[in-house]
Amino acid sequence: MARRASAAADRSRWHRFSPLVLGCAALFTGLVLSSSAALARQFNALAAWRFTSDGVLELRTSPGLSLRPRHIAASAGRGGRIWLDLQGEPRRPRQITIGGTIASVRIGEPRPGITRFVVELAEGHDVDPSRLDLHSNGQGLWRMAFPGLSREATESIQPFGEGSFERKRVSWYRGRKITRLSPDDLPSLSPGRYRVMLDAGHGGHDRGATNSAGLEEAEINLDVTHRVAALLEAKGVVVVLARSVDSNVRLEDRVQDANSHRLDAFVSIHSNALSGLRSEVNGLETYYFNSHSGRRLAAALHRAILASVHIDDRQVRESRFYVLRKTAAPATLVEMGYVTGNRDSARLSRSAHRQDLALGIAKGLLDFLRGTP
């Protein structure tokens, strides 16, 4: 009797709570589905596409995809069509008229969460589907020719596209947002209005900091200095080099040379080192001495490098370096990382990292010259 009463009570409680349970389940399912739909809208595997001047279709997608082009043969009144499907909803379904051999490109959504990319050839044109092949470099870049088109038809494909083929330039480093620079990101100044001196530290028999792998500061400094000089000159700045080759120039001569010009800024470019077993020390240090304008220059360089380069922040500092004390123009000395550091040493040996440093230094200098805070 007690068991029957207990069972009846359980059934009663279930009937009371079951609408609540079912409602929660429905709400959870709705949230999952709406979340999935939102993710599909936010994510699109197709980042960019273009037809090149040599008649090839190029795509940039998320890495790790497997894509297979499909073909619909030409019919009366229209040319052949090549299409492929990618993950993610299109940001904006559209049809773009190209002209010439390529009649148009259509980007649509055949079903939720899928982008369909269609190339429509002009009437009278088609490809050989047995030879149609989409090649990938394994990192999200694809190329596809149009086999079966005549040479004249291939040459009539007009260069056109959407999106950028540069790798994503925004990343995060130790909680800091990094946006890699390109030369196009640097501001231009009035040609010939500003003059700066770039001082590649050490040189000749003075190799500066070195590490056990043979990485030498003198070589790094000169390489980055030449890169910075080229970037600045392209933006209208007159650049004077304290040394342009692997030679030793005395500090006194560097300062005398700097003070013989009417400089708007002086930048000494160095790499750092620590002796002993201190490989955990890495990072950017930028120096000035007893000068408001020097501090402002140092801060501009430091800020621009940190915003665009993967490197630890070891702050802007004041120091009595000879070239900072004796140079009349606003002066700074930048230490681009530690050749003895367990992270910096590998980076400083790479050309791409040196270019990023050069772009950061150039950006900071240009910002300083044009008065950007």
Automatic annotation (TrEMBL):
Record-level Gene Ontology MF annotations: N-acetylmuramoyl-L-alanine amidase activity
Gene3D superfamilies documented for this protein: Zn-dependent exopeptidases
Entries under SMART domains matching the protein: Ami_3 (SM00646)
Pfam families, alphabetized: Amidase_3
InterPro entries in UniProt: MurNAc-LAA_cat (IPR002508), N-acetylmuramoyl_amidase_3 (IPR050695)
A Gene Ontology biological process term: peptidoglycan catabolic process
Domain MurNAc-LAA: 255-366
Keywords, in A-Z order: Hydrolase
GO CC annotation terms, alphabetical: outer membrane-bounded periplasmic space
Protein name (database record): N-acetylmuramoyl-L-alanine amidase
Biological source species: Aphanocapsa feldmannii 277cV
